[in-house]
Amino acid sequence: MVDYFNSKELLIDGISKLQFSKIPTPELDARILLSYAINHQDIIYMHNDISISKNEKNKFYDYLNKRIQGKPVSRILGSRNFWKKDFLINKYTLDPRQDSEVIVDIVTKTYSNSNKHIQILDLGAGSGCIGLSIIDDLKNSSLLSLDICKQALEQVNINAKRLNLSKKLHYAQINWFEKTWIQNIKLITEKEKLFSKNKFDIIVCNPPYIKSSEIKKLQIEVKNYDPLISLDGGIDGYDSYKAIFKDLSKLLLNNGVCFVEIGYDMLEYIKIILKESNLNLIKVYKDFQGHSRVIQIS
Ligand SMILES: C[S@@+](CC[C@H](N)C(=O)[O-])C[C@H]1O[C@@H](n2cnc3c(N)ncnc32)[C@H](O)[C@@H]1O
Question: How many domains does the structure of the chain reveal?
């Protein structure tokens, strides 16, 4: 005999369990997790009267337990909505953040009317969310996605396939702390037919920028689930900026621009690194909370 349960009763129970464990958004999380457990297309509401099988109920309680232990909803689902699409994530990729949509917003608005082919470089691609979102919107474009982590690049490839963007993408492993990293990129652009120029119109980058000593103070959802390499910016948080900015001009076309995400309190020291690297700060963009979040440089 199969037991059936009512969605409303399960939701009420799930919400109270999450509330008891002080999960910040208990109602939304319970609704998303129940929808996922029953494979429901849309997020279910309290008024929905859906019968749930025992197997589905068990899945729901399993997800609730994971959430209570600190696993983010996106990690349980294995995907995160970013800009206009869902991106699959794995344990090697950063969980895409809403703040990073600022770069996509600026680039897609600035270049939406461009007729020429746009060559884009995504440094530290992670799940691919920034670069792939841009080439999804800018039809006449190609993308080189780079990361130190092979398993992250595999996820970029999977996301590109799902979004039907594989033909516009090339991806490769690089480490911007290696002396030859710029040279390695040039070798790729020389060989790859996707790239007619060996420099880029647009470079986007969201590097790791948390101070090493701050990582242990981050919330469980971040420190236990985002890969350390995607967070750790070194002793003062600026290691990746220093390495990337040093020779960045060798990768930018004359009228090319680079958009880089920065920590909310990093702008003043970033200005000094830019000066030392002979780069110009063109504009600073705020995030949705009003913090300086993205710099445009050339
Ligand atoms: C903050 S995450 C950003 C991921 C993705 N772009 C996003 O916004 O969700 C930084 C990324 O840089 C990569 N990374 C860290 N150190 C690197 C290095 N030395 N060379 C190349 N990539 C690196 C990490 O693997 C990670 O995917």
Answer: 2
Q: Alpha-carbon distance 129 to 135, whole Å?
A: 10
How far, in Å, from the CA of 270 to the mean position of ligand 1? 18
Indicate if 62 and 188 belong to the same structural domain: no
Alpha-carbon separation of residue 61 from 46, 57, 66, 218 (angstroms): 17, 6, 9, 27
* Spacing, Cα 51 to ligand 1 middle (Å): 43
* End-of-domain residue from the set 69, 96, 116: 69
Which residues does the chain have with pLDDT short of 70? 1-2
pLDDT of 91: 96
What does the pLDDT read at residue 42? 85
Range of the domain at 148: 80-297
State whether 92 and 39 are in the same domain: no
CB 143 within 8 A of CB 136: no
pLDDT number for residue 252:
97
207 CB within 6 A, ligand 1: yes
Q: Is 145 in the pocket of ligand 1 (CB under 6 A)?
A: no
Residue 13 CA to its chain's centroid (Å)? 32
Residues 195 and 106 both lie in one domain: yes
Collapsing DSSP states into helix, strand and coil, what is residue 67? helix
- CB of residue 7 inside a 6 A radius of ligand 1: no
What pLDDT, on a 0 to 100 scale, did the predictor assign at position 2? 64
Cα of 160 from ligand 1 centre, angstroms: 17
**Nearest atom (ligand 1) to Cα of 122:** 6
- The DSSP call for residue 226 is S
Does some domain include residue 149?
yes
